[in-house]
Design a protein that fits this description.
The chain is of the alpha/beta class. It is built from ten helices and 20 strands. α3 packs across α10.
Length: 362
């Protein structure tokens, strides 16, 4: 990317709002973090205005747009938030997009954080990297679709199809946290989140320790911290099995590369075996016959041996009937699962930047 246009961005959390300005995908002035005032609408909106103005005052050039992630639910195309979770000041419908456009006289684009994470990875992250590796391996295979998953306080998702962010008709195009977990009779976020790891460890270890974090439980699982190692390992195995089921459900519809990010991805060496076991398992029909859980072969692209097989595929030459011509095809239907290399925050920031640039160019 060599675009010289400046875009203002924001990381909107329940505690702080972090503002930055990007050119060519890189920060061009000192970022600023201000209190979010999550329960006070007037003060929170004043923070939005003053934070962006602080950036503008540092710049030598006028920014061309504002683009940022804001927690849902929301009507993202129209810039209206209905958040009732970590930013209750914006409950009920607050048109922050139109408000900012009126104040700064530039276009404003608002999206979900998981959507922008996925968009950043699709445009500048794992998707072009994987396609370049396939090209280098002389494979005819290319991927155009990406499912992005964020693993942390909650369980979020984004979908990019053929270079376009998929939002759906109600900005609800990737609400994966609501996918049902039939084993627990609850939603998947109840099993794929920080609170899920803590809950399962306390249940299995019969512990009432209050200061535990997922990192603590990871260290217990690795034998680096005192605690119930078996319970810690099983907690992440349960997490991984639920994650595998969620990916399998969505992969039957999206059929593309899966990239994950978020704080819990740091424990991937423990939970990924459970994920892959589910994705490459069989499922039984009511007549006791079995078939693959999903149609595609799934590779763990973090594993060097599996990556090599993924890149190799099943390439061969086939003849076009009635002619002397042949064509090179890759007969293996497959997808890959991987983790963000640039990091969730940077991918989200890049996503916000590139989304604005692409919208301005339409």
């Amino acid at each position: 990317m060599k675009d010289q246009r400046i875009i203002l961005t924001l990381d909107a959390g329940g505690t702080n709002f972090a503002f930055s300005a990007l050119k060519n995908g890189e920060e061009v002035c000192d970022p600023i973090s201000l209190p979010a005032y999550a329960n006070n609408q007037q003060k929170s909106i004043e923070t939005l205005l003053s934070g962006f103005q602080h950036l503008i005052d540092q710049l030598k050039e006028k920014p061309l747009a504002i683009s940022f992630a804001f927690p849902g639910p929301a009507d993202y195309p129209n810039g209206i938030t209905y958040n009732v979770g970590n930013l209750p000041a914006y409950a009920g419908g607050v048109p922050i997009g139109p408000l900012l456009e009126e104040h700064f006289k530039i276009p404003v684009y608002i999206n979900n954080d998981a959507d922008l994470f996925t968009y950043g990875e699709a445009i500048m992250g794992v998707l072009p990297e994987i396609n370049q590796k396939l090209e280098d391996a002389n494979s005819p295979k290319r991927f155009n679709n990406l499912l992005g998953l964020t693993l942390g306080t909650g369980f979020g998702a984004g979908i990019v199809r053929n270079g376009d962010l998929f939002l759906g008709d109600n900005s609800c195009g990737a609400e994966i946290w609501l996918v049902r977990n039939y084993k627990t009779k609850s939603n998947m976020e109840s099993s794929i989140s920080i609170r899920a790891i803590l809950r399962e460890y306390k249940r299995l270890a019969q512990s009432d320790e209050e200061d535990l974090t997922p990192k603590c439980i990871y260290e217990i699982a690795k034998g680096e911290r005192e605690g119930d190692q078996e319970a810690a390992l099983e907690s992440y195995e349960i997490f991984g099995a639920a994650l595998g089921e969620a990916i399998a459900n969505v992969a039957t519809l999206i059929d593309g590369i899966v990239v994950m990010g978020g704080g819990l991805s740091g424990a991937k060496d423990i939970f990924m075996p459970s994920v892959m076991n589910v994705l490459n398992s069989d499922i039984q029909s009511l007549d006791n016959s079995s078939f693959p859980r999903i149609h595609q072969k799934v590779y763990d692209l973090e594993d060097a041996a599996e990556l090599k097989q993924f890149l190799k595929g099943e390439t061969k030459e086939i003849k076009i009937p009635g002619t002397e011509k042949t064509m090179t095809v890759d007969c293996q239907q497959r997808i890959g699962v991987c983790f963000s290399k640039m990091g969730t925050n940077q991918a989200t920031s890049f996503g916000a930047y590139t989304y604005a640039i692409n919208q301005l160019d339409k």
